[in-house]
Amino acid sequence: MNRRNVLKSLGLSIGAAVISTEALAHLGDNKYSYKIPENPLYGPMAKPVTAISIGAGNRGTVYGNFAAKFPEQLKIVGVAEPNQFRNDRHAQVHSISAENRFQTWEDVFKKPKFADAVIIATPDNMHFEPCMKALAMGYDILLEKPIAPTEKECRQILDMAHKTNRIVAVCHVLRYAPYFVKMKELIAQGAIGEVISVQHFEPIEHTHMAHSYVRGNWHNSKETTPIILAKSCHDLDIIKWVVNKPSQKIVAMGDLKWFKKENAPAGSTARCTDGCKVERECPYSAIKEYYERRNRNKVLDLPTDKSQQDAAIMERLKTTNYGRCVYRMENDQPDHYVTSIQFADSVTANFSMEAFTSYHDRRTRIMGSMGDMVGDMKELVVTDFRTRKSTTFVPRVEDVEGYKNSGHGGGDWLLVRDFVQAVAQQNPALLTSTIDESIESHVMGFMAEESRKKGKVMDIKMEKVKTPQGQPQALKS
């Protein structure tokens, strides 16, 4: 089927909307696959953008791997990472010279500016200070979400970005996932008429919850950030981005129900390796998850020699939080969380984050005046009430090497690709997740957490402040 016939066929079922993404592969039965074409604003690069990785864990590695794959676009020239194993690994992958390897982020800024940008992929509670220092020294920034642990710090970063006229791209990678790009595009083109309401669901998956938010780095909200920001600011942001209307009110409920000492089974022990009598039947067994299934082992910093990995995994399970009983941690993150949002023009949205699922990947239902959408990140089904015909869109995704099924729908590297071009051209318009665009969904997250704790409906009042030139400068509530 040629392009003209594809567009004609699609037009019959989605209100004659023009498809700007490449929906050219006809899969039969009104089903089409598509990919996101290269941004027409991209330009040739005389040299790669240079960047310093501040944090070389999971996210720092994901973004760094883009540079390893596309060295003509991005070159990592420095690293700050206190974990020696990760520091060594990053330096080796990117051929970083000894004088540009640092243990702490503070050490990076003791040197004069030596790169175009910094990638901040430190723990959540360590975003603010390195970001502010980098901006003061004239770096552009790729900033892992959440922006900062408090609303005040988020706004200070926003103000500093405008004061220094630097680019700050927030890693709201779902905005770059082909699935959500198509969803937003179709809504903007009126494929389902006026949006009336949204239901969005994030199934974390039970073992992912145990790994990251019970045993892992984000297990305690007081030491990092609340789970609504640490995990689900992606979701609040994507709802806001797709609806494309100001948020007005938010209310939230949820709690930590299951991962508590009183629910520890009889015969369980402090660690799964301590002779726990129920380890074999426990769905959260660290031995089964990390040793037998070999899942989520990147955090264990295993040796590359596979003959040494068995012993290394068991040693980590005996000495780190990843081997501890999920019922005996110092965790406080809710394991179920529901949020309702009122947007302008009477649009409502419900968001549910749930730990206890056997699957992951977001699910979304969008109800419009002339049709609806139902999707699970693998497919997006659009039904037109007028014709009663449905069209299915299947995104073609290039996932990140070494991080298959990341849950981000291929958005990670598409974000980095746009960031590189934005820095090279000094044009933040190439990005859809600048700090200006991302700040409102963070405020929604802070308000949701306040609502959950206080049992109140919270007003969200966002007011744009204009510069003398009439450009957006800051947001105030």
Automatic annotation (TrEMBL):
Residues annotated as domain Gfo/Idh/MocA-like oxidoreductase C-terminal: 184-459
Gene Ontology MF term list: nucleotide binding
Keywords: Signal
Domain of life, source organism: Bacteria
Signal peptide: 1-25
Segments forming domain Gfo/Idh/MocA-like oxidoreductase N-terminal: 54-171
PANTHER family, sorted: BILIVERDIN REDUCTASE A (PTHR43377), BINDING ROSSMANN FOLD OXIDOREDUCTASE, PUTATIVE (AFU_ORTHOLOGUE AFUA_4G00560)-RELATED (PTHR43377:SF2)
Protein's UniProt name: Oxidoreductase
Organism from which the protein derives: Rufibacter quisquiliarum
Lineage: Bacteria, Pseudomonadati, Bacteroidota, Cytophagia, Cytophagales
